Amino acid sequence: MTSRQSKLLLLALAAAACSKTPATTPAPTGGLQAAITPADLRARLYAYADDSMRGRQAGTPDNIRATALIAEQARRIGLQPAGDNGTFFQDVPLVRRALAADAGLTVAGQPFELWTDYAPIDRGSPARAIAGAGAIFAGRLADTATMVPAAATAGKVVVVRAKPGMPIFLAMAQVTARYPQAAAIVFGNQDAIVKLAAQYFEEGQVSLRDATETPSNVAQPALIIAGAKLTNALVGGDIETLAPGTSGKSVGGSLSFVETSAPARNVVAILPGTDPSLKGQYVALGAHSDHIGVSHGKAFDHDSLRAFNQALHALGAVDPFADIDPAKRATIHVNVDSLHRIRPARMDSVFNGADDDGSGSMGLLEIAQAWANATGADRPRRSVIFVWHTAEELGLFGSEWFTDHPTVPRDSIVAQVNIDMIGRGSAADIVGGGPRYLELIGPRRLSTEYAQLIEAVNAKRTSPFRIDYSLDADNHPENIYCRSDHANYARYGIPVAFFSTGQHSDYHQVSDEPQYIDYDHYATVVQFVYDVARTVANRDQRIIVDKPKPDPKAPCRQ
Predict the structure, then answer these.
(1) How would DSSP label each residue in 290-312?
(2) How far is the C-alpha of 230 from the C-alpha of 8, rounded, in Å?
(3) In degrees to the nearest 10, what's the CA dihedral of 476, 479, 482, 486?
(4) Which residues are registered as beta bridge partners of 127?
(5) CB 227 within 8 Å of CB 117
(6) What is d(CA 15, CA 305) in angstroms, rounded to the nearest whole number?
(7) What are phi and psi of 339, to 5 degrees?
(8) Cβ proximity of 522 and 364 under 8 Å
(9) How would you write 436-454 as a 3-class SS string?
(10) Which of 137, 230, 415, 531 is most buried, by CB atoms within 10 Å?
(11) What is the mean pLDDT of the chain?
């Protein structure tokens, strides 16, 4: 599931730089069963979320290697290629933007350490020059009435204090709108997230670049997350008590970004339908092939980090990025010595993404194999198109590209099912979780009939799922509806259903590994998704869309 960048936190218990030794790339799994089984899913996932895949980050050779494994398995299963030029691959044009080699920042001639004292945030457009600009403290978002007027900030390096608990990326949008003529906007006293922001931005940000698109050349204020050391130097005091409008010192340096190509690809495959009158229609099944890669130059003590995050979860955090009372956070103490008596420290730098979304990607292969081996009425009347989207973690780019440039007629897709993070969901992972726990998001937003169909399929199960709809509430702060690939299908009026077993303490951590998956629960979810998709595929009529279709170019709204 795509990162909730608005809630970045400093990863606890980071250790000295080290990296895991990659194992030999595992051979594609063979000898699997025709039915959907926990054993098959385990075999697939251990291969796909192995350290040798190096976190499968889109725009890197690691995701190319991962998509090659998926395509080879799709070929072995007997699916038909449905990508570009008769292949299983649909190229997605990504570019990587990273800071120029000479980037840096000084205050009154004093240099500050990039990615330690501050983290520049790329906006995808040129940043304004900062050399020679004076700093000004504009105020606190918790008291917007006292913030300085926009006219006072033109050409300045504007320092603000975000509202405590406010997602920093939401704060960025608000302050940029308030001070559009600033040379730079600095979010001060953010020590807790500078280094984690470095983890996301130091290697550069990848974005989608359509060949018909003209890059923006309009300069925008540079965005900077700063710790207290740089913040105090800029304005000459503590912004927790400083008066808005206080002038600061002169800033030097440059924060320009440069672009390079970052090739990526979707994997697209079709299982043809059996009904001549319906096989030109498609049920789309999707998951994302990518995760967030490796921690470059850093490593984490796997067991102590996991223990810390589990304790954080027990205090009420949905995942490690959730806002939580600092006093509660301070109560967490991990006895590292005790952990190391159980086993030596395991330094870990690979974000394996076993649940996110190795579970969905391998679930699609398991569904494809079950369907390819089916006979008679179990074969789909409509065709089924499987799409393993790339770059979901970077901004849903693979699904955006596929839905903008579909390899089958877009209007022929009758419904889409998205599976992302379906391997967990126990009571230890989710409040109220258990062996029948499942989250469902999206179907009622475009089609009453689709939502009712899923409920009917669930009711026929020997042990129905307890379906949690809470995250599908309008304007829910987690914004899950807009954070996975189904959202790009829905913007074109295609009914969607997003299945997940939810976020947990290993979300976007090096500890999201195959040994923590609940394979029995995982298999029941995959079987249910198969049953839902089969029901849609075998209906006489396509799903009725009875809700207004959105503008496909408008921003997604939960």
Answers:
(1) -B--B-TT-EEEHHHHHHHHHHH
(2) 19
(3) -80
(4) 220
(5) yes
(6) 10
(7) -65, -40
(8) no
(9) CEEEEECHHHCCHHHHHHH
(10) 415
(11) 91
CB contact at 8 A, 139 and 161 = yes
In one letter, which amino acid is 284?
A
Yes or no: say if 370 and 36 are a contact pair by the CB < 8 Å rule: yes
Number of residues that this document lists for the chain: 558
Q: What is the separation of C-alpha 308 from the centre of its chain, rounded to a whole number of angstroms?
A: 22
The answer to whether 89 and 71 have CB atoms below 8 angstroms apart is yes
Per residue in 289-299, is it b (16+ CB within 10 Å) or e — as a string? bbbbbbbeebb
Strand partners, 166: none
Reading phi first (left if > 0) and then psi (alpha if -120 to 50, else beta), residue 432 is in left
Closest among 231, 200, 230, 255 to 3, alpha carbons compared: 200
CB atoms near residue 401 (< 10 Å)? 24
Instruction: Compute the distance between CA of residue 535 and CA of residue 457 in angstroms, rounded to an integer.
Output: 8
Q: Concatenated DSSP letters for 324-353?
A: --HHHHHT----HHHHHHHS---EE-B---
User: And the tokens for 238?
Assistant: 């503590």
pLDDT band at 5; cut points 50, 70, 90 = very low
Helix then strand then coil, in percent of the chain rounded to 5, is 35, 20, 45
Q: Hey, what are 264's tokens?
A: 């990526």
The CA radius of gyration of the chain, in Å to the nearest whole number, is 24
Residue 211: per-residue pLDDT = 63
Query: Is the pLDDT assigned to residue 136 strictly greater than 50?
Result: yes
Cα–Cα distance, 383 to 454 (Å, whole number): 19
Tokens of 211: 């060949």
Query: Would you call 84 helix, strand, or coil by DSSP?
Result: helix
In this predicted model, what pLDDT tens digit does every residue of 264-275 receive, in sequence order?
A: 999 999 999 999
Measured from the Cβ of residue 547, the count of other Cβ atoms closer than 10 Å reads 13
- Nearest 5°: phi and psi at 555? -60, 145
Residue 471 tokens, joined: 């995250």
- One-letter amino acid for residue 521 of the chain: H
What is the residue whose two structure tokens read 């990039």?
114
**For residues 393 and 476, what is the distance between their CA atoms, to the nearest angstrom?**
20
The DSSP annotation for 262-285 comes to --EEEEEEEE--S-TTTTTSEEEE
- In the block, tokens 């077993």 appear at 501
Cβ count within 10 A of residue 272:
12
Is the distance from CB of 263 to CB of 91 less than 8 angstroms? yes
Q: What is the DSSP letter of 555?
A: P
Q: At what angle do helices 519-538 and 38-48 cross, to 10 degrees?
A: 100
Local structure of 436: helix, strand or coil? coil
Sort strands 383-389 and 347-348 into parallel, antiparallel or unpaired.
unpaired
- 551, two tokens: 């503008």
Q: Is 12's pLDDT higher than 50? A: no
CA–CA separation, 283 vs 542, rounded Å?
A: 10
CA distances from 201 to 97, 156, 181, 206, 282 (A): 9, 24, 24, 10, 38
